[in-house]
Write a structure and sequence with these properties.
71% helix, single chain, elongated
Length: 76
């Protein structure tokens, strides 16, 4: 991975000068916090989706299928 630090530093400096943050570490800390919050939201959504699927299985609301057959079926 090639990281152009000067480009990233310019973005940080713009945010700090723009008045949104008192200094660069505060901006970077906010980015990390927001990334962690976003990851938590994604994980919670994934857990909800899995629970929906597990409940559908318990209620027998699923259909068995064979992916190999689906991928090998020719469409005309």
């Amino acid at each position: 991975m090639n990281l152009q630090l000067s480009e990233k530093a310019a973005i940080v400096q713009t945010k700090v000068v723009g008045g949104g943050y008192p200094n660069a570490p505060a901006y970077i800390s906010d980015i990390i916090l927001r990334a962690n919050e976003f990851d938590s939201l994604k994980l919670n959504q994934l857990r909800q989706d899995v629970n929906i699927g597990l409940n559908e299985i318990k209620r027998h609301e699923v259909v068995e299928f064979n992916l190999e057959e689906i991928f090998n079926t020719k469409v005309e």
